[in-house]
Amino acid sequence: MKAAVFHGPGDVRFGEVATPEPGEGEALIRVRACGICGSDLHTYRHGMFRQLGLPVDEGLILGHEFSGEVVETRGTIEGLAVGDRVIAAGVGGNAEYYVARAPTLPLVLHVPDDVSFEEAATTEPLATSLHAVNLAEPADAETIVVLGAGIIGLGVLQTIRARCSAKTIVVDLSDRRLALAEKLGAAETVNARRHDAVSRIGELTDSGQANVDTVFDCAGVTRDFTGASPLAQALSLVRPNGKVLVVAAFEKPIEVDFNLVMGKGLHLIGSFAWSPAEFAQALDLLSSGKVDRRPLITHEFALENASEAYETQLRADEAVKVLLKP
Question: CA neighbours within 13 Å on the CB side: how many for 211?
């Protein structure tokens, strides 16, 4: 089969690999759309998170947010048949085919006909956003800040908007992404390239100082980042006894002033991935129309152009979600 194979930092190549064979009680899925995730970019840039790739002789097949259709089943699989449109949870989506092994079959979910393969491929990152929001338990009267308007941060915004009327402020460096945040319902946006985010949010909350109930750090830091990290800003922004959700990955260690955490009695919460129930709930948000993911899909590439696709996803000023179409 055709696949995009990661050989090392900055090196993703299109080529042929062996087509995986399903075993008894397993299903072969023809991949129709696969998103490039932030963790894929960490692998692409620095070789991090290699466990999120499927080993092949040539290297690793990345990609863990994808949709497709069942083309073969071995034995009887209850509720699953050839021709079904599905999403799945696993690694190796940057390829023509994926085998849903027995342990992951419960995470193969049917996609309604009115949800496109492209939209369905964004279910997994939406589930990650949903998990963070579930941990935060936002309420109508709260003020919330989302740092980082990539696919996860915008998904946090969408999930908050779907469940309550909390005032949500989104911070990013990209005008394009901030314009999209406004379209998706952000009450205010702040470009941190032009404004000091902490001071500006203090102005926007009419308090003269930052007094935010919950902050989501969906930005993290890259290896070349300098200055006050988004997490440090989050700790400054949040009110006493407020919550800070750490959703992003960090490419290097950072300094954290734990006197702020202690002195303000903060709830510092790490948020990783999702539960199986949240994976299904994310698909329900799409199928019900409560969340529209189409505006977040900015680029689509054929699998043979995977190298260009990865380079495009790196350019935050122009891309939100890049899809590969095997």
Answer: 7
Q: C-alpha distances in angstroms, 318 versus 177, 193, 298, 304, 311? A: 8, 16, 8, 21, 11
Q: Please tell me the pTM assigned to this model.
A: 0.96
175 three-state secondary structure: helix
For 256-292, the pLDDT digits (tens) are 999 999 999 999 999 999 999 999 999 999 999 999 9
Distance CA 106, CA 279 (A): 11
pLDDT digits (tens, 9 = 90+) for 6-36: 999 999 999 999 999 999 999 999 999 999 9
DSSP structure class, residue 273: S
Angle between helices 306-314 and 38-46 (to 10 degrees): 100
CATH entry, 126-270, from 3.20.20.80, 3.40.50.300, 3.40.50.720, 3.40.50.1100:
3.40.50.720
> How far apart are alpha carbons 120 and 220 in whole angstroms?
26
Angle between helices 175-183 and 151-163 (to 10 degrees): 20
Class of domain 2-122+293-325: alpha beta
Locate tokens 């491929």: which residue?
121
